[in-house]
Amino acid sequence: MADFSGGFWVERTIGASAGAAVSLVYMLPADRREAACRFLAGLVSGLVFGGPAGVLMAGKLGIAAHLSASEIMLSGAAAVSLTAWWALGVLARVARRWGRKNSV
Fold it and tell me: What is the total count of domains within the chain?
């Protein structure tokens, strides 16, 4: 049975929010709508896929025995959120440029 205690959600939410916030350093959104969409996508993907991603990363790096479950959850949620935010931003900009070329 999965543990859906308060700590479970706090760890995922903090990790997902941190990943979305850090990603602002790499690629600023063009406007408020894009920022809101990308933040929401990062938050949701971090909440949903944070646990499995953290376990996968800790296993691949061989450090799972040295980390607590909270650290694995937090780092996984942050990594997934950062990746989703960045990837969505790149896709939005590519689509915007591609759309301009095809509309001429």
Answer: 1
